[in-house]
Amino acid sequence: MNDIDKIDRAILNALQADGRLSNARLAELVGLSETPCARRLRRLEQDGYIERYRAMLSRQSLGFGVVAFVLVRFAVHDRTLADRFEREVCAIERILSCHNVSGSADYLLQIVARDLDDYGTFLRDQLRSLPGVTAVESSLSLREVKADGRLPVS
């Protein structure tokens, strides 16, 4: 991040807050005219600082009332098995994130479900049948305190 300056950081912060900003509004917010702002934005995209643009959807409006954080353990640590597990996890939409972690578990998943019954069925029928899975430990979110998703760029 050494090759970006204060204005680039301001652009990144503004876009994290509102990815639908027009170039004119973005330029105004960061104190540039439109052409240099567009040029900087293009460079930030090309250099990989901006991976993509997307909308943040409302979990509640879409009927997902349960968020679970799940520790997944393997009994056997085999690269082929882990690759299969990761491929299958990536294909399941309700698994929002999957991290290969250190510690007592092998993976940490974030999963959404409509309700507890839906989550229980998913756990029984899909999660426990994934390749390599020998144990799962669920923690259910009682209340979301922060879900900004923005990275610090200051």
UniProtKB/TrEMBL annotation:
CDD domains: HTH_ARSR
GO biological process terms held by the UniProt record: regulation of DNA-templated transcription; response to amino acid
Signal peptide: none
Record-linked InterPro entries: ArsR-like_HTH (IPR011991), AsnC-type_HTH_dom (IPR000485), Dimeric_a/b-barrel (IPR011008), Tscrpt_reg_AsnC-like (IPR019888), Tscrpt_reg_AsnC/Lrp_C (IPR019887), WH-like_DNA-bd_sf (IPR036388), WH_DNA-bd_sf (IPR036390)
Molecular-function annotations in GO: sequence-specific DNA binding
Keywords, comma-separated and alphabetical: DNA-binding, Transcription, Transcription regulation
Keyword DNA-binding included in the entry's annotation: yes
Pfam families, per the entry: AsnC_trans_reg, HTH_24
Ranges that cross the membrane: none
Domain HTH asnC-type: residue ranges: 4-65
Single GO cellular component term: cytosol
Tagged with keyword DNA-binding: yes
Protein name: DNA-binding transcriptional regulator, Lrp family
Organism per entry: Paraburkholderia caballeronis
Origin organism lineage: Bacteria, Pseudomonadati, Pseudomonadota, Betaproteobacteria, Burkholderiales
